[in-house]
Inverse folding.
């Protein structure tokens, strides 16, 4: 159920990434002011957009979890936020490189997008420690969802507040894709789709892996014959996922 | 609902009055922090941006100290269980805790702001006081709401003293931005300009939105 379509999705992702990278390097024209350096924009901006969208999607999944009390929504929320964190690190690093290249500093405080991104990242960096510090799995998932919703709502508010506080300096590529030349816009859009596909594929892989592991554990428990008493759960930040129905029919 | 909130608020304030666990600690912390800032910055007086920053950082850390302790008694001594057994609306507890936290902050500022004016502030505080009170009040509401939500989140975790500040600080950054920017012109020597309205508006909106979020989510932290 979880592994379904994984192969075709992976193939599409690889193709899209290859197409995006070849467009970036061979098709998109060099930018007049920044030259070759500007090409990092095709990686950095999609990474940041996808990570932020991932955080918001994590909040939506968390709402679904609190509504339905279905642990699968919690697992999805966890995986999406986890993956977004990784993408956010990548976006911060590429942004930092870009800042070094165009302004000569690794970190620029009067760059609102970069600063708000760092604050959001620091907030989400506490997601895993929070989960890890709550032992009871049910309470862990509930509290994690409350955190995910709060943080998801914080993302846009934080961006507004930080943007208000700084003079505008960012090369206005994000807000004004309309004034990009056509070839650049096409490359940017393809890159965005490719990175979004990469995100989806990696989330799906992680979900499948988590699900498979839970299934294997349940099957092993059945094989040993300790079905009635589940083994004590080790301390973990990963949501618990009962794989009962699949395991029962699988044997 | 109003009666429940009133009863809970009375209980909170009574407990605090008898144990004196939070507010004296917060106030003392704030005054000590001013002394630390004096030596760390090697300045005998501050103004403008720097003054506003010191004031807000100090108030923020003192508030986090209080927020961390806000639910400890309820978690350790069965306050949550007692409350959940009572047939009352659960949001009452959130409102009562926010009001408690607000009361703590007001007392903290009654101590800390004069101490700040005496110890560190260069320009006289008097002419800026009404506006400063307005900015502080708006900031306090936000700090109280976020402190309550984060306190309730962190109190059930194993590393509650560590997680509380870690969760609270990023969430409070917009309040620091609004609060410090609005306070900076008030603490300048040439006290010409008013607190910019857009910062007050930002603070107010942030308070409102986070108030709604906390109100919607608090129930889920209580059921066990």
């Amino acid at each position: 159920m979880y592994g379904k379509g994984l192969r075709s999705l992976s193939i599409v992702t690889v193709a899209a990434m290859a197409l995006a990278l070849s467009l970036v390097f061979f098709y998109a024209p060099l930018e007049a002011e920044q030259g070759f350096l500007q090409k990092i924009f095709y990686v950095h901006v999609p990474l940041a957009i996808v990570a932020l969208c991932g955080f918001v999607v994590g909040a939506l999944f968390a709402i679904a979890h609190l509504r339905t009390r279905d642990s699968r929504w919690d697992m999805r929320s966890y995986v999406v936020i986890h993956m977004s964190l990784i993408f956010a690190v990548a976006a911060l690093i590429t942004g930092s490189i870009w800042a070094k290249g165009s302004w000569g500093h690794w970190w620029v405080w009067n760059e609102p997008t970069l600063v708000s991104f760092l604050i959001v990242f620091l907030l989400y960096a506490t997601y895993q420690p929070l989960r890890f510090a709550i032992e009871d799995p049910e309470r862990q998932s509930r509290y994690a969802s409350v955190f995910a919703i709060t943080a998801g709502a914080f993302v846009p508010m934080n961006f507004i507040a930080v943007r208000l506080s700084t003079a505008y300096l960012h090369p206005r590529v994000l807000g004004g894709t309309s004034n990009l030349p056509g070839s650049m816009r096409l490359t940017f859009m393809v890159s965005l789709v490719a990175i979004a596909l990469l995100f989806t594929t990696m989330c799906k892989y992680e979900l499948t892996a988590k699900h498979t592991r839970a299934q294997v554990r349940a099957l092993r428990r059945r094989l040993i014959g300790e079905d009635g008493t589940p083994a004590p759960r080790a301390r973990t930040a990963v949501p618990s996922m009962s794989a009962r129905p699949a395991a029962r029919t699988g044997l | 609902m109003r009666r429940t909130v009133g009863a809970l608020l009375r209980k909170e304030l009574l407990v605090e009055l008898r144990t004196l666990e939070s507010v004296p600690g917060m106030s003392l912390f704030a005054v000590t922090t001013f002394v630390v800032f004096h030596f760390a910055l090697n300045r005998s007086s501050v103004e403008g941006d720097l003054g506003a920053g010191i004031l807000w950082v100090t108030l923020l850390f003192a508030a986090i100290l209080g927020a961390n302790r806000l639910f400890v008694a309820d978690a350790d001594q069965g306050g949550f269980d007692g409350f959940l057994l009572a047939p009352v609306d659960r949001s009452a507890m959130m409102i009562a805790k926010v009001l408690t936290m607000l009361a703590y902050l007001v007392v903290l500022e009654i101590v800390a702001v004069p101490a700040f004016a005496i110890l560190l502030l260069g320009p006289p505080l008097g002419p800026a006081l009404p506006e400063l009170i307005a900015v502080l009040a708006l900031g306090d509401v936000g700090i109280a709401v976020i402190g309550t939500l984060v306190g309730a989140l962190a109190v059930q975790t194993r590393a509650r003293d560590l997680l509380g500040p870690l969760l609270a600080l990023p969430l409070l950054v917009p309040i620091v931005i609004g609060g410090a920017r609005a306070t900076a012109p008030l603490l300048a020597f040439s006290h010409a300009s008013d607190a910019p309205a857009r910062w007050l508006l930002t603070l107010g909106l942030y308070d409102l939105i986070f108030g709604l979020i906390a109100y919607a989510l608090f129930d889920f932290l209580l059921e066990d």
Observations:
- Residues 2-222 of chain B form one domain.
- Chain B has a mean pLDDT of 90.
